[in-house]
Amino acid sequence: MPEDRELHSEIGASCANRWLHCPGSVRLLRGLPPRPDTEYTILGTAAHALAETCLKEGSDPADHIGEFIEVKGREVPVTEDMAEAVSVYVDKVASDRAEFGGELLVEQSFDLSWLRPGLFGRNDACLLPANWGGVIRVYDYKNGAQPVEEEENPQLMYYALGAVAGMDNLWPEAVECTIVQPNCPWESRAVRTWRIDGESLRRWAVEVLAPGADAAMAPDAPCVCGPWCATCDASGVCKARADEAVALFKASPLEKRVSLPPLDTLTPAQLGRLSSFFTSARFAAWVKALAAAELEALQSGVAIPGRKLVETETLGNRRWTDIEDVKRALGPILGAELFKSEIRSPAQVEKLLSSRKVAKAEQAGLISPLVTRDMTHKVVVQDAGVSGKATCAFAPVPLGK
User: Fold this and answer.
1) What is the pLDDT of residues 218-273, one digit of tens each?
2) What single-letter DSSP state applies at residue 61?
3) Quick check: is 205 in a domain?
4) 200 belongs to a structural domain
5) Which residues, at least 6 apart from 52, have a Cβ–Cβ distance to it below 8 Å?
């Protein structure tokens, strides 16, 4: 299965939300080592590779369960969980292609140097219309659970421009940008589509993206703190971030007893001592205890200014409630195909039923009484009154007007 994914531009689509808001981050990141891969990023890369294979070969993700995908020297198994998640994406692209027709491009590289040098990337998938000037459909697979806002998302609009480039820059009537995020805690948000008309997209490219790229390439580009800092590898060397932390500390009850010096005034030895303290297990334990005390207070009804409780629920993967019930209900229909070395999973059985031309509604009626699903429930603390939706450093063009 394919693994290599094109090197990212420093002003690429996946980080557009960061550098459009904080142009100075591009300069800070140069020369820094890349963030180490985590289990989440490795799994995400493998899931993207599985999706690419299925779309190009026309295969079903469930057919690959038990196979391995090589990601940076690691063999990642295709599990039922991965196959079930990727199926949501593959099925969405396939159903749109069946409904609207057109040319499907998978992992297609694009170049926006006609707009500004350095703007390039690769689309997960896009569906070019059969009639030129029609509606382009762009798909972005997200393997993570943190919900991503689709409306006026700079990454999606960047990808939309990449799809336009595949039509020799002939501006379409509109672009439908779809995020497929099957691991999102809210099942109703697993597939989300946002539409932007062609003229609004063109204006955004000229009036937001292009000047944003110019600003990011400037040697004196400013750093601006915001939610995008959470995904920035330069946070540890960013003076704006440090100044923000010092300002928060000075506003705390500890300010009269302790003060933090600006980072640019510290000697190497002082940097080492402070870093070892704030990253130590003892300090981490105190921070953990602080968070636990805050959670307990909020759960007890104590109001904490600027903080609130948020409840989340995550559905686990389906599993059979009783194997004997499954055999009785589905054995007469599927026979020996119901089993591999063991009984097939709910996702695999759905595919088999589809191959037998069993309608979706009938499938649900057969399978739903036979499966169970764990629910993960937790209560977390968030900043109150903050929507999390970022605003661009460059005033965006009103869309759809």
Assistant:
1) 999 999 988 888 778 887 778 888 777 667 666 666 555 566 677 778 888 887 77
2) G
3) no
4) no
5) 1, 2, 106, 107, 124
Q: Residue 317: inside a domain, yes or no?
A: yes
- Per-residue pLDDT, averaged over 136-163, amounts to 92
| Nearest-angstrom CA–CA distance, 30 and 10 | 9
Q: Where are the alpha helices (DSSP H) in 227-280?
A: 239-250, 268-278
pLDDT of residue 106: 96
Q: What is the mean pLDDT of residues 107-121?
A: 93
CB distance 155 to 324 below 8 Å: no
Q: Which two tokens stand for residue 304?
A: 């904490």
Which residues on adjacent β-strands are paired with residue 192?
179
Side chain identity, residue 84: E
- Count other Cβ atoms within 10 Å, centred on residue 59: 13
Indicate the number of domains in the chain.
1
SS3 74: strand
Q: Which domain holds residue 359?
A: 310-383
Is 358 within a domain? Answer: yes
